[in-house]
Fold this sequence. Notes:
The protein has one helix and six strands, in the order ββββββα. The protein has one helix at residues 105-115; strands spanning 25-35, 48-56, 60-65, 75-79, 83-93, 96-101. β4 (75-79) and β5 form a beta hairpin. The protein is globular.
Amino acid sequence: xxxxxxxxxxYRLEGSAADRRYQRVDVEWLATIRAESGNACIHEExxxxxxxxxxxxxxxxxxxxxxLFFEKNNLLLQSSQLGIVRCDVVWRRGNKIGLQFSEDPxxxxxxxxxxxxxxxxxxx
Length: 124
């Protein structure tokens, strides 16, 4: 279940790096996030925004975005490295957003291992 988006420091409540279920790794990948077609949008003109993935795990990613983006659910994250991944926004702080992937973490984990030598995470 997604938490409320109105807490600026919500992402800090996740605990320390040692407490996280999936290993995060810093990256600098250009990406686009957009509302999945067929889903209603709050602001039609903000259906898509470009940005940079700053860190990623098998379960989600942190992005710096280049504009306003008000959508929360049923989103598609696209990058040349990952391809297209379904996700939801779980926190927002200024131009930084945290995404939780809606897809199987094992699939994302396998892709990250291909892209990032030495990447490993603790899978359930």
